[in-house]
């Protein structure tokens, strides 16, 4: 058996889609220390282990994000699925490694070197820097990869020599073990192996000694195989909200790439690619790409994507993309599935309006299919918004601190709101709209919105005119103190 | 147009309702007065923390202040309680204390049960909303019979009609009069942005995310009366006045109620004080009180009696007597040292015979303020004193004053930045520009440098909010040592809460509040040197059989003064800093009074660098000494005609310009504050005129006035300097005669002083003290002295286990106890078992090299320790038999790294010795070689940075001390270089300096021209520097 360990030293940074784009330095921190940084950051002299403030001092426009382990785990799993194209036996070696048993694949890929190249290039395309270690035992491969020793160890007999000079910090040590080894003056694996086994076992713990034994092939080291999930789903998060639609393309293309690799492995195709775009301060935006026929051609999908993106307009910053494959189809010949509605209605038991929405999306563009929702805001023009149908309407329940318990529900609101407040004429100081207005209720004074430049200061009144219309008017409290019509009660 | 009806605001919150309201108490009072309100009630939420400030503001304006507090009960009931008289106030204060004690710090809990007795005397206003239940109104009416109202705040939120209707309906139904109130949380409408920001900070969410939960408008401010007249029914406004008229309590009514148990049987406070003073006088002067002192005592006692301060002195005397009875060293400091009475009572140690005292510096009729006595105690044992106070008076009668923690520029920027939704990095960048904050703005260029657009609306909003919020209180914390002690329960005087520290309680007022109200406070401070001195006395008694006290030290020992003149003063109180070490060889003190001057003359400000103090010039005979009159001579002769002390200025004002002592004291206070308030104006006139009348030349008068202004901020009180000078002499005497004792006591009293243990140990060795390493077979927790058979009259210093990082006193004590009781240890396992040590203890010992006599070198010791750990607790009886194994020994460099990491010092070679070859190749020779370098020649020096100082008044100059294997070097880095190389100056641990060597007599330093960072050569070595600003 021959094992290849893929070690991704920059997984924390690379798990964000836009880490290396642009030229801003980026650091990822955990527990108050920098654990990873992108190339730009390294050029500024930022090092792992620094405090974020120290890093800030070295780079003015630094981006700083806390570590998100879930993203890394997901990415690792996605890569494990991707790696299935090289061998049937893939194992996860968290937090940043994958193990591939390549003994059986060497012939198919025509040798070790070509295989290594393919893996390296593939990962590079997916945006990862990688160190690989090759050894007869999985543990040894992992240690070699982490230490940066890329020379393959082909025979078990070479293991002792190869591992002896590796520094002890390639072993995942906790603080206690680390200090213990330091105290004993053990700096490399060879030093540990020089200690009497019984004494070392007692002092350093079984786990550590057994790990070394496994690495040297003196102890069995079974690894659980990775099975990819049945349903394809992959995600990508951005550090900075993307406002330009064109910048979404690379990330989505990468996800498509991953999907197609998975489809090839399963020997299947899809007709629907359901993207979900997470937005900075609004609900997530669904974006679905539909194919007329099941397929798994990445290039074709990318073309469709480009065309669809041209029609997409985004109002808010996009912070992440998720891709879920629609239903899988076996790739056998071409079936003409033109009638989308019938097909979906028959095969997908869901609420009837969802397919309707999808169809409308595909015909009109998903940016033109919307529904209404309320927001918590005092300014009437911002108290509502368009959202995508089906996105969970989460209106946060207001905090129940005592002062909010009482009058947080606004007073009566008109059914119709004008898109823009309409200035009213005045006669003898009273506002007029289809006749003189009689002010009934009020004023309801709204002074809010200073934080985003949209501060308003208005006194709202309910008014009635001689024609019986009930209107919602306001008077500006600043400037000209003009009267406006803002809404109509139905 | 309606007339504007009269009005009193009865429901108003200040920023002492932390993070809820957006105006200072003074602003609210000022605005209410400007609007012509009759009265304003300050009703912070479960707090009276702001009332004193409001009271001080109301005193100067024509408006009545009513004291109250608002509460939200746990069932949602919203009540405002007002205190119309002293007794009601006491009950309100006690209620607040109760509510706070029922919840964790910063919060309170109040339920209906707590109000069962209806808080007799207090007035209750129930705040009505449309959702208020009738049942609640009924309860209020029944609980506060005849003293309850309903009230509502009308704020144009669209529900005013319902609110008012409901309020009036409840009032009619339960026969509760309705009164108008504002529910005010800011003094002006324009504060609404800040108010919203505070809510965002409180909820931990950016403003835009909670936009729906904010108030919908800015009506919650103090509104003009004509607006209120249009809004509220007339009788509700009139009711507010009726309530205000009912209230006549003022904080001026609060009097300090003295503890009575201090007075001896059959005595009054006056007679008892005299009794104690006479007793003390007999102890101090067995042959009888000198005449001058007698006069001073009579004068003081008369003034004390006139101002009725006897109980205060008795309280302080009692505390000091307790401390002495326990052998805790203590000493009064500050202006109290001007008092002969305090000397007789044993509170201070400045002998009135040896010094000229000015009692009015301490207490004066004109000042109308209570005296303020600060007492220093040994820092290690101050807690005993504090517990004594709590025990004697009970936690309900004694509490610490509070300190109000306010927003400063950095914290303001962080919190406001987050509330406005800025990213962490943006806030980080902005924080760095805060160094340019001048109180109002940041210069636009600075903002642009940091990557911000100064015209950006968001930035402007941010800075404007930051400006407003700076100075806003955030929470209360305990004051360092200021105690308030009362006769009755303290909570009826002012609300008490738990402090963060267990076993401590604080009152809701701070020092300034207490001063404003004339309440007395005793400051129990901690002084590290007192601990060190007491430990020295104990060691001298133990090892030399001599029991000494502060008063027993032989005075005026020439050897001691020789040492001081050499500036060989590391560890000596007050004179060990760089600035002092530079001054000592120039001033050359030869007597006690010289020390008093030495302490006072080295102050921040103009006396820096090149400028030589006029006193020194005269002392060295470079300038003539003359006095315009005998009166002036009498005041300034002791300082060669140069005013150095605050008391001298006061005395000059008295003898040369005819001020009364009390007026002279006022002058002194004006001097201290004149830069802020901008004017000694009236005093200047009086001074010049007074001196002209007495025949002094206008030139002299002007010059004197200039001198007063010049050192107004920096002048030291002579009494304070005298108290400290005593400690300088005593500590210097001990260092000179018993160097091993001295360093042992200093090490055992850490943290304190200017230098780290590493430097103290080096200094001791340089003085010939042998230092032995920490060893579990010999060391105690504390450092100890051991006999040195080779030198019978000297002792060797054995380092104690307290230096080991990660060991802890309990474990160390178990080791030494086990050794004492059961004999020596033979191996690590037995020791671990006998002393009950766990793995972290053993590792700490191994790392420190303390197991060398049991386990060999460090690696060997670790092997043994790990073996013991693996045994586990159950295998006590049968230690595992290991095959013996020899590990390779650590290198010297490895040992050095471990020494520093574990103890912060090494007895082996200095780290620089290892690096000398490397640095030599770059031209850096040891610091001892610098003594051969001439004045103003180029020189190079490299060393560990052990001290960094950036005194605020020195204009950006940084002083560093570099240490290498042969000694230390003082480096001066001027402002430009310091700014250019800022990160190096702040962060480098091993620095190479190329510069100009300056030598003036014995005082030398290296003025840096270029800096090189060699910190990377230190590798894993951990070094620490003591940094001061």
Describe what you observe in this structure.
The complex is a heterodimer of chains A (490) and B (1029). Chain A has 490 residues and is α+β, with helices and mostly antiparallel strands. Chain A has helices at 11-14, 39-43, 52-58, 69-83, 112-125, 138-147, 159-164, 175-184, 189-194, 197-204, 206-215, 248-266, 298-311, 340-347, 353-364, 402-405, and strands at 3-7, 26-30, 33-37, 63-66, 90-93, 97-101, 131-135, 233-242, 268-279, 285-295, 318-325, 328-330, 371-374, 384-387, 416-423, 425-427, 430-432, 437-439, 444-448, 456-465, 470-476, 483-488. In chain A, the strands form six sheets. In chain A, strands 15, 18, 19, 20, 21 and 22 form a six-stranded antiparallel sheet that branches. In chain A, strands 8, 9, 10, 11 and 12 form a five-stranded antiparallel sheet that branches. Chain A has a four-stranded antiparallel sheet with strand order 5-6-1-7. Mean pLDDT of chain A is 81; it is low at 333-351 and 393-408. Chain B is an alpha/beta fold. Chain B has seven domains: 8-253, TIM Barrel, CATH 3.20.20.140; 269-393, no CATH class; 408-470; 528-603 and 716-763, DNA polymerase, domain 1 (Orthogonal Bundle); 606-710, no CATH class; 770-874 and 889-908, no CATH class; 911-1028, OB fold (Dihydrolipoamide Acetyltransferase, E2P). Chain B is 43% helix and 14% strand. Chain B is built from 40 helices and 23 strands. In chain B, helix 19 packs across helix 30.
């Amino acid at each position: 058996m021959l094992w290849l360990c893929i070690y991704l030293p920059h997984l924390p940074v690379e798990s964000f889609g836009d880490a290396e784009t642009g030229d801003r330095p980026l650091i990822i921190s955990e527990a108050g220390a920098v654990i990873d940084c992108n190339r730009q950051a390294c050029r500024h002299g930022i090092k792992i282990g620094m405090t974020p403030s120290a890093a800030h001092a070295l780079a003015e426009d630094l981006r700083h994000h806390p570590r998100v382990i879930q993203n890394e785990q997901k990415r690792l799993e996605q890569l494990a699925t991707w790696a299935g194209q090289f061998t049937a036996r893939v194992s996860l070696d968290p937090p940043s490694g994958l193990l591939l048993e390549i003994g059986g694949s060497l012939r198919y890929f025509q040798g070790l070197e070509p295989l290594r190249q393919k893996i390296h290039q593939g990962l590079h395309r997916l945006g990862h820097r990688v160190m690989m270690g090759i050894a007869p035992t999985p543990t040894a491969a992992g240690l070699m990869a982490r230490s940066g020793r890329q020379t393959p160890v082909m025979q078990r007999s070479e293991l002792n020599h190869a591992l002896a000079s590796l520094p002890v910090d390639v072993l995942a040590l906790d603080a206690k073990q680390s200090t213990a080894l330091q105290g004993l003056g053990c700096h490399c694996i060879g030093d540990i192996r020089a200690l009497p086994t019984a004494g070392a076992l007692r002092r350093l713990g079984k786990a550590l000694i057994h790990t070394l034994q496994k690495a040297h092939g003196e102890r069995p080291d079974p690894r659980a195989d990775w099975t990819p999930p049945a349903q394809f789903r992959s995600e990508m998060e951005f550090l900075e909200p993307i406002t330009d639609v064109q910048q979404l393309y690379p990330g989505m293309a990468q996800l498509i790439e991953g999907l197609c690799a998975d489809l090839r492995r399963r020997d299947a195709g899809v007709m629907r690619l359901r993207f979900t775009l997470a937005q900075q301060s609004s609900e997530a935006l669904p974006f679905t790409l539909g194919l007329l026929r099941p397929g798994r051609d990445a290039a074709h999908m990318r073309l469709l994507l480009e065309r669809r993106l041209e029609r997409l307009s985004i109002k808010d910053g996009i912070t992440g993309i998720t891709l879920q494959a629609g239903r899988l189809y076996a790739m056998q010949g071409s079936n003409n599935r033109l009638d989308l509605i019938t097909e979906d209605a028959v095969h997908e038991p869901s609420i009837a309006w969802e397919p309707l929405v999808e169809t409308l999306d595909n015909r009109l563009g998903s940016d033109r299919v919307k529904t209404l929702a309320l927001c918590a805001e005092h300014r009437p023009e911002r108290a509502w918004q368009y959202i995508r149908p089906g996105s969970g309407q989460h209106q946060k329940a207001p905090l129940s601190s005592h002062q909010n318990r009482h009058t947080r529900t606004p007073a009566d609101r008109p059914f119709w709101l004008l898109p823009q407040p309409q200035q009213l004429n005045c006669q003898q100081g009273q506002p007029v709209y289809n006749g003189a207005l009689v002010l009934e209720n009020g004023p309801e004074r709204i002074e809010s919105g200073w934080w985003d430049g949209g501060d308003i200061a208005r006194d709202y009144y309910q008014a009635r005119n001689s024609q019986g219309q009930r209107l919602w008017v306001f008077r500006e409290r600043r400037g000209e103190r003009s009267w406006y019509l803002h809404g109509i009660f139905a | 147009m309606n007339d504007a009806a009269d009005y009193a605001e009865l429901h108003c919150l200040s920023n002492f309702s932390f993070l809820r309201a957006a105006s200072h108490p003074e602003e609210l009072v000022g605005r209410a007065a400007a609007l012509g309100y009759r009265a304003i009630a300050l009703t912070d939420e479960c707090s009276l923390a702001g009332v004193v400030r409001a009271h001080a503001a109301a005193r100067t304006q024509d408006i009545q202040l009513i004291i109250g507090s608002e509460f939200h009960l746990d069932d949602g009931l919203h009540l405002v309680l007002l205190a119309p008289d002293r007794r009601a106030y006491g009950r309100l204060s006690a209620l607040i204390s109760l509510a706070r004690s029922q919840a964790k710090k910063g919060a309170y809990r109040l339920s209906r049960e707590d109000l069962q007795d209806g808080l007799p005397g207090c007035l209750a206003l129930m705040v009505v909303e449309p959702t208020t239940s009738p049942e609640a109104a009924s309860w209020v009416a029944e609980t506060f019979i005849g003293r309850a109202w309903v009230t509502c705040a009308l704020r144009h939120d669209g529900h005013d009609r319902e609110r008012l209707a409901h309020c009036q309906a409840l009032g009619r139904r339960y026969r509760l009069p309705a009164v108008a109130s504002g529910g005010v949380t800011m003094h002006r409408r324009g504060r609404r942005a800040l108010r919203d920001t505070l809510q965002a900070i409180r909820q931990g969410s950016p403003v835009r995310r909670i936009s729906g939960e904010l108030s919908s408008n800015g009506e919650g401010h103090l509104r003009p009366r004509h607006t209120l007249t249009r809004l509220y029914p007339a009788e509700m406004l009139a009711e507010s006045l009726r309530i205000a008229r009912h209230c006549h309590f003022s904080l001026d009514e609060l009097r300090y109620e003295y503890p009575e148990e201090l007075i001896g049987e059959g005595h009054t406070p006056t007679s008892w004080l005299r009794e104690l003073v006479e007793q003390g006088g007999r102890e101090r002067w067995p042959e009888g009180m000198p005449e001058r002192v007698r006069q001073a005592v009579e004068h003081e006692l008369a003034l004390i009696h006139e101002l009725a301060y006897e109980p205060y002195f008795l309280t302080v005397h009692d505390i000091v007597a307790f401390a002495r009875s326990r052998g805790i060293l203590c000493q009064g400091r500050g202006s109290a040292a001007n008092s002969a009475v305090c000397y007789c009572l044993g509170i201070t140690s400045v002998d009135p015979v040896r010094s000229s005292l000015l009692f009015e510096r301490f207490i004066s009729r004109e000042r109308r303020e209570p005296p303020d006595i600060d007492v220093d105690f040994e820092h290690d044992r101050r807690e005993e004193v504090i517990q004594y106070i709590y025990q004697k008076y009970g936690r309900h009668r004694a509490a610490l004053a509070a300190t109000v923690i306010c927003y400063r520029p950095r914290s303001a920027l962080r919190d406001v930045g987050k509330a406005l939704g800025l990213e962490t990095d943006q806030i980080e960048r902005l924080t760095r520009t805060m160094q340019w904050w001048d109180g109002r703005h940041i210069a636009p260029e600075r903002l642009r440098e940091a990557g911000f657009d100064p015209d950006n609306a968001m930035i402007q909003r941010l800075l404007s909010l930051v400006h407003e919020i700076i100075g806003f209180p955030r929470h209360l914390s305990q004051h360092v040592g200021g105690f308030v002690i009362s006769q009755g329960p303290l909570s009826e005087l002012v609300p008490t809460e738990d402090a963060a520290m267990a076993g401590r309680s604080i009152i809701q007022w701070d020092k300034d509040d207490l001063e404003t109200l004339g309440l007395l406070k005793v400051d129990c401070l901690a002084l590290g040197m007192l601990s060190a001195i007491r430990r020295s006395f104990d060691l001298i008694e133990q090892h030399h059989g001599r029991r000494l006290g502060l008063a027993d030290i032989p005075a005026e020992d020439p050897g001691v003064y020789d040492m001081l003149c050499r500036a060989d003063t590391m560890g000596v109180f007050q004179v060990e800093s760089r600035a002092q070490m530079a001054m000592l060889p120039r001033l050359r003190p030869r007597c006690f009074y010289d020390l008093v001057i030495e302490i006072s003359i080295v102050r921040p400000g103009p006396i820096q660098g090149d400028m030589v103090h006029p006193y020194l010039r005269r002392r060295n005979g470079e300038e003539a000494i003359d006095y315009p009159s005998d009166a002036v001579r009498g005041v300034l002769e002791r300082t060669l005609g140069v005013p150095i002390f605050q008391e001298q200025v006061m005395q000059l004002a008295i003898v040369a310009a005819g001020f009364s002592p009390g007026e002279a004291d006022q002058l002194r206070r004006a001097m201290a504050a004149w830069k802020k308030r901008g004017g000694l104006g009236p005093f200047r006139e009086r001074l010049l005129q007074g001196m002209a009348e007495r025949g002094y030349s206008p030139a002299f008068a002007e010059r004197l006035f200039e001198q007063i202004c010049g050192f107004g901020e920096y002048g030291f009180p002579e009494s304070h300097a005298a108290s400290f000078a005593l400690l300088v002499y005593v500590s210097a005497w001990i260092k000179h005669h018993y160097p091993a004792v001295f360093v042992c006591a200093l090490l055992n009293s850490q943290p304190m002083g200017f230098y780290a243990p590493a430097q103290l140990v080096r200094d001791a060795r340089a003085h010939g003290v042998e230092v032995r390493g920490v060893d579990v077979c010999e060391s105690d927790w504390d450092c100890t002295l051991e006999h040195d058979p080779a030198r019978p009259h000297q002792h060797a210093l054995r380092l104690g286990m307290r230096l080991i990082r990660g060991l802890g006193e309990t474990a160390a004590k178990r080791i030494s106890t086990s050794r004492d009781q059961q004999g020596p240890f033979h191996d690590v396992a037995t020791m671990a078992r006998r002393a009950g040590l766990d793995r972290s203890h053993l590792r700490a010992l191994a790392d420190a090299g303390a197991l060398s006599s049991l386990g060999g070198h460090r690696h060997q010791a670790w092997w043994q320790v790990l073996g013991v750990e693996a045994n586990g607790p159950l295998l006590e009886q049968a230690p595992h038999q290991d095959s013996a194994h020899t590990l390779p020994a650590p290198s010297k460099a490895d040992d050095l790294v471990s020494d520093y990491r574990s103890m912060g010092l090494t007895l082996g070679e200095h780290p620089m010795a290892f690096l000398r070859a490397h640095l030599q190749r770059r031209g850096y020779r040891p610091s001892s070689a610098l003594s051969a370098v001439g004045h103003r020649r180029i020189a190079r020096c490299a060393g560990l940075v052990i001290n960094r100082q950036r005194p605020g008044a020195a204009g950006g100059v940084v002083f560093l001390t570099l240490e290498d294997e042969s000694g230390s070097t003082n480096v001066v880095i001027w402002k430009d270089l310091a700014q250019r190389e800022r990160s190096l100056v702040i962060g480098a641990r091993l620095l190479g300096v190329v510069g100009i060597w300056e030598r003036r007599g014995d005082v030398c330093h290296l003025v840096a021209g270029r800096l090189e960072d060699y910190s990377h050569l230190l590798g894993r070595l951990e070094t620490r520097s003591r940094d001061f600003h």
